[in-house]
Amino acid sequence: MTDENQGEAREARLEESFDRIVSEGSQRVYRTWSNLFATGVVGGIDVMTGVMALLAVEAATGDTLLAGVAFSFGLVALLLGHGELFTEGFLVPVAVVAAGEARPRDLARLWLGTLVANLVGAWVMTWLVVVALPELGRQGVEAGAYFIDLGFTARSFCLAVVAGAVITLMTRMQQGTDSVPGKIAAAVGAGFLLAGLRLDHSILDSVIIFTGLHYGHTTYGYLDYLGWLAWAIFGNVVGGVFLVTLIRLVRSRTMLREHREQVAE
Fold it and tell me: Could you give the C-alpha distances from 38 to 1, 43, 47, in angstroms and in order?
């Protein structure tokens, strides 16, 4: 295949991926409140299954990298169970707004609804897990304190920025292929990076912190958690939207302009 043919094939794949992103994103942005909430609750529960594996492995081995591999089950469950995380809304829905198919307030509705639903599902599920498996609660106290104790520093902010970038890159990789094994590989890799390297991810680490709070005897409380959550969300948005999504949308600027023109007609 000549360089010209390779270039045409690459552009065709990009256009196909762009069309898929806009089509799927439009459906996600305009979900009813009940569907949005249900999908978000399921996402919080799915992530909790990965945190269970993470805490169990960490308690048994003390190895955070191995625990990160175990956590990846949660992102695989999220993928195959069709749940959704707040942080998965950085690439696809933002592309829909950029393409003129939705308004910024529609995006804000999706983000807020999914975030609240994720946290509700995770909070309830962690209570059940701590009652059933208190040994995981004990591990959660220590693991949760790690994130709270990071405070409002340049390091914690950068950890949150990188976490937002990693989860958004995972979304882009999954959108770029129809291969289920490929999508699973992206989930496993992202899960390892997020949990194994202890990046500051607003939903994943909320589940860990909830586990400790439900168990009790923590050095932190819900007010400490809310301050941490706001800081983590800020960093996640910077990493996911500004560091990954907007740069990738620049690559698709011609397709975005053409799509906006079609919508305006």
Answer: 47, 9, 14
Indicate whether this model's pTM tops 0.90. Answer: no
Q: Give me the residue label for tokens 């996911």.
A: 240
The two tokens of residue 43 are: 């996402």
Here the tokens at position 148 are: 């709270």
- Count of residues for the chain? 265
Q: How many CA atoms lie within 13 A of 164 on its CB side?
A: 26
Both tokens of 120, joined, read 């509700």
Span 99-103, average pLDDT: 80
Q: How would you write the chain as a 3-class SS string?
A: CCHHHHHHHHHHHHHHHHHHHHHHHHHHHCCCHHHHHHHHHHHHHHHHHHHHHHHHHHHHHCCHHHHHHHHHHHHHHHHHHCCCCHHHHCCHHHHHHHCCCCCHHHHHHHHHHHHHHHHHHHHHHHHHHHHHCHHHHHHHHHHHHHHHCCCCCHHHHHHHHHHHHHHHHHHHHHHCCCCHHHHHHHHHHHHHHHHHCCCCCCCHHHHHHHHHHHHCCCCCCHHHHHHHHHHHHHHHHHHHHHHHHHHHHHHCHHHHHHHHHHHHC
Radius of gyration over alpha carbons of the chain, in Å? 19
What six digits make up the tokens of 183? 């999508």
Q: How far apart are CA 23 and CA 5, in angstroms?
A: 27
What is the model's pLDDT at position 8?
44
